[in-house]
Amino acid sequence: MSHRGDGSDPGIRVLHVDDDPGLLELSARFLERATDRLSVTTESDPVRALERLSTEPVDCLVSDYQMPELNGLELLDAVHDRYPTLPFVFFTGCRSEMDVSDAFSRGATDVLEKNRPAEQYELLAHRVVDAVEQARARRELSERERNRSGNEAPFRNPTDSLNGASSPTDEIADHVAVGVCTCTDDGRVTYANDAFASLTDRDSESLRGTDLREHFDGLGSDAFDPDAQRRLEIEREPGEDGADERVLSVTVTPVEPSRRERAGGPNGPSDRTAFVLTCEDVTERVAYEHDSYLLDALFEQIPVHLYVKDEAARHVRISNEYPNPDEVIGKTDVEVYGAERGTKSYERDLRIVDTGEPMINVVEGNPETHRYFLSSKVPWRNDDGEIKGLIGITRDITERKRHQRQLERQNDRLRTVASVISHDIRNPLNLASGKLQLLEDECGIESVHLSDAQHSLDRTHDLLESLLSLVKHGQWVAETDPVSVETVTGLCWRHVAAGTGALELDQEFYVVGDEDRLHQLFENLFRNAALHAGSDVTIRVGPLEDWSGFYVEDDGPGIPADERERVFESGYTTSTEGTGFGIPIIEVIAEAHGWDVRLTDGRIGGARFEFVGVDFYDPT
């Protein structure tokens, strides 16, 4: 394995090892797209990957964990036996099955989880670049300390930087983006580049000779272990300048004293170990990881089909609601579902990516399985507003469609019944009522029997109208609009009101519903209140305190608790004038809107109907 050393930017050569060739192809594309500094080669066999390291220049190895022949940890051990400074990053779907702390203790540079959206590949690319830059900086500084022991270079111990000495290695470290410094075993700084000094809010000259522990509270004496490399994550408190709290990633690498240092230098013999520190501000990365874990939880637990696709409409992330999510990663809908079923969806995906126009609530059916799905898809954009793909959500609405068809069949039957009732019953009733009136007029008979007969016919007519209303309003509500409760209740009150009663509206508000049916609902409520509370009834209407619905209450005698359930039964009434259908019709209209209705005591003792599950509308 080799590393370029001619001073030019060598780029970063990555070898990605994974037993899934499809994922290797996808990740290579995304990694090289994330930054032009990366050049990615792939290998599906970990044994061959180990052999390739001896013949190909590699700056970082990215590996899966669960693989045949050699798992990721076994590959890590084999690589570090031969190339101990080579950065090794795990990119695995089995992070939860790994002992991550064991992986770090055995030399892993980082551990990330795969099968996330394409941003995860950007994070992986960022980690690879950081790992390689830190490894290069550590190697250069370590070589500086060791090379000073040869005859070709003057002796220099870790404290020489205090005297203003410099070297070509210092020049290299001064120009890398990663913070780099060297220090003695008691934490005293001997060299720091500008990137490192900026993390301490000081310049590199004033930082030299100071104790690192004064600048990093989390950098204790146990961080300087002469026998092992340490990786730390340190939180820096907000500074006096008002800067936000920052999170720093610090790697501490021991550098043994050279032979000349042990033999003696300008300050006498020394066997003290020096240390090379690399430091990076990872605040944004930590925040991103936190967001990524939340996203993971969303994709793992959300009970709907949620997915992300790239510009070519290939899946890059899919929720666990899908039966086999791993099988569709990297594939289009045509590849997943076949040309006959998937072509239309695939074409819609490409249109969304090309035009940026979303697709909202489109019903898609599968004739073979008689299943139906409701899909919404929106463009997926990066921070610059460029479209990177799409985000979609699909819900199985087969049961809803089946229920809808069943309701439609029931409604057809109800309409047939209503037609029969309207024609075959209403006509004979009208005929009988008319004959009685003629009998009374022609014969001049005034009889209580005729009066009772007419009353019975009138009551039967009222029952018929109530039954027809029940049939009509029992249909499924398909179209809804914002409805002003103030307007609709005002009209209903004028139709129903008699005597000295009053209607009070707590405040103006709008609900989403079918206006005609809401007219029937409020009229029935108002008639029921007037029937039981008298003509001077006061009715109050308003939203519930938590805005989950609205109420209608009166100041009448109320309804005893033990009778409230029976009130909703068809035909039940406590009044000789009532048909017993008014309240059941109210319940049917509420259910047609998807609302629940409950009956309780009013604030001043009357009956109070509460409708919950209501959608409100804000006209502002």
How are the strands ordered across the major sheet? Answer: 2-1-3-4-5
State Rg. Answer: 40 Å
What would the average pLDDT be, to the nearest integer?
78
Structural class, please?
A: alpha+beta
Distance between the termini: 68 Å
What helical percentage do the residues reach? 25-40%
Oligomer: single chain
Shape, please?
elongated
How much beta, percentage-wise? 15-25%
Number of domains: 5
Task: Return residue spans where pLDDT drops below 50 for at least 5 consecutive residues.
Answer: 1-8, 149-169, 574-580
Largest sheet: 5 strands, parallel
| CATH topology heading of the largest domain | Beta-Lactamase
User: In CATH terms, what is the architecture of the largest domain?
Assistant: 2-Layer Sandwich
CATH superfamily of the largest domain: PAS domain
SS element count, helices:
18
